[in-house]
Amino acid sequence: MSVVRKILNYTKPHFIYIILALVCSAVSVAFTLYIPVLVGNAVDMMIQKGKVDFSGIIGIIAQTGLFILIVVVFQWLSGNFTNIISARTVRDMRNDIFEKFNRVPLSVIDSRAHGDLISRITNDVEAVGDGLTQVITQLFSGIVTIVGTLIFMLSINVWIALVVVVLTPLSVLVAAIIGKMCAKSFRDQQELQGEISSYVEEIVGNQKVVKAFAYEDRSRKEFKKKNDRLFKIGLKAQFAGALANPCTRFVNNMVYAVTGIVGAFTVVSAFMGVLTIGQLSCFLTYANQYTKPFNEVTGVLTQIQTALAAGDRIFEILELENETSDDDKINLENADGNIEFKNVKFSYTPEKELIKDFSLSVKSGQQIAIVGPTGCGKTTLINLIMRFYEIKSGEILIDGVNIKEAKRDSVRKLFGMVLQDSWLFSGTIMENLRYGNPDASDEEIINAAKLSYAHSFIRKMPDGYNSIISEGASNLSAGQKQLLCIARAMALNPPMLILDEATSSIDTLTEIRVQKAFKKLMRGRTSFIVAHRLSTIKESDIILVMNDGDIIEQGTHDELLKKDGFYTKLYNSQFD
After folding, report:
1. Does the pLDDT of residue 149 top 90, yes or no?
2. How far is CA 191 from CA 97, 116, 187, 311, in A?
3. How many whole angstroms separate alpha carbon 341 and alpha carbon 395?
């Protein structure tokens, strides 16, 4: 299905407005086309032999003024309905893209630049809306104008009308050739806009790092290089698109000139029928209006090409394969916390296997620590438990139930999760702490904040728990953000916990306090702790030592030290 048809499919729910716009456009064009007839009649009245009929001319002028007023009103109504169609189509398209982000596998989001994805839901959708407005406006009025002028021209003189009809397709041919030439340039332009959006988001969002490494000059040069590429490609696309209108106007002016010459000969010699000067005046107006829709379409060719390129990028996302449906799966409402891995295999790319034949049995209430060098598969293991990624083979069981046989949401609700990268949205502190448990009472939220040692700094904020967290939580320190994330997990009160470097951004004194809070929270709950600081996981029931996707050692802290193996080297390296 072409991009045009896909975009038009989005307009179907707003069919009533399409009909209203079409009717208003038809009325507007009909009265517009009748005005030249009145003008032609007035011309014939003024040049006829004998006394000029001034009263008849005044009546025509009054009638023309009334018709112009009607044209203006119905043009406004048509434009208003067209804007409604465009705005609602853009709204639906933007909703679908956002919904798509939540339905595709996490790997799809991880594998694409986030700035580019944002550009598709903002810039590209807006470009489609602008193009759609232009197309609908020109399409409706254009079709009615072409049909109407053709009928009027045929009623005046069939042969001269055929001259206009035969010559006009030349402008369509010229526009089609130019459109084909510049299509790729507009596609490249939209892709580069997405690339620039991604780069700007990256640099602006990490200004402290940019300034700390004195990267300003290099970032400016890199941005200038990207921006210059966009300028060159954009200039090429705009130049090619701008060629269409003057080229088609040239062809259409030739049609107008030929029509005038043939019409003049007809008036003088009647070799193509009888034609008065007033009718010739009327016919020339119609010839001009007949070619006008072709000029208007080519005049907005740049916007149309941009919209098509943007639509192509939008539907590239919308047509991605969703996560497999789990509506028919069972709902895990609660769990004791017995987790078992059976011969699990996983890889991000087919050519490089990460986790190979991994097996583990975790009993309810056990504290499992996962350690190892960077890139060994610690966080990947957590992603598999949460079904952020699907395993290639094997099984992961919760209380004997294969998580593939359970709904993803029900699996994820069983875990409270605190990540190394703390995320908070723009809103009040209370709203953020309720994110995972919207039904929690104020008392429960405050208690969770006290347990995580966040209560003291929250009280000192201007509005306490109603203080607004700015976008990106820029008004909080890294440690404060992490404490709030810990409090959010505590407020959820889940049967199982995942702590992925959960205390990496807080000071040592606070970390000791939070570890005590974690002990209370983890009591009776199965807990997975990913840690780099091995001193924080000494009391774990099982420590899994991973390297290259495999568990190479497991046991308690004391047992692993006695083995004097890989774990011992990791542990001692922190004190070297």
Report:
1. no
2. 17, 8, 6, 12
3. 6
b/e map 408-428, b = 16+ CB within 10 Å = bebbbbbbbbbbbebebeeee
> Residue 431 pLDDT more than 60?
yes
Tokens for 17, please give them: 């407005």
In the predicted structure, residue 73 carries a pLDDT above the cut 90: yes
The model scores a pTM over 0.70: no
CA distance 71 to 508: 76
pLDDT at 21 over 80: yes
Cα Rg of the chain (Å, integer): 35
**Alpha-carbon distance 162 to 562, whole Å?**
99
- Answer yes or no: is pLDDT of 325 > 90: no
| Summary mean pLDDT of the chain | 80
User: How many residues are recorded in the chain?
Assistant: 576
| Residues sharing a CB contact under 8 Å with residue 552, sequence separation 6 or more, in sequence order | 545, 546, 565, 566
- Which of 488, 386, 473 is CA-nearest to residue 437? 488
Of residues 440 and 253, the one with the higher pLDDT is: 440
Q: Where in the chain is the domain with CATH 1.20.1560.10?
A: 3-318
Which DSSP helix (H) or strand (E) runs through 341? strand 339-346
Rounded CA separation 368/539 (Å): 10
Per-residue pLDDT at 389 exceeds 70: yes
Using CA atoms, how far residue 411 sits from 100, 415, 528, in Å, is 21, 8, 15
Residue 49: is its pLDDT beyond 60?
no
What dotted CATH number matches 3-318? 1.20.1560.10
Where in the sequence of the chain do the CATH 3.40.50.300 domains occur? 337-411+526-576
To the question of domain 337-411+526-576 being in CATH 3.40.50.300, the answer is: yes
Q: Transcribe 255-305 into DSSP letters.
A: HHHHHHHHHHHHHHH-BTB---HHHHHHHHHHHHHHHHHHHHHHHTHHHHH
Q: Residue 244 has what pLDDT?
A: 67
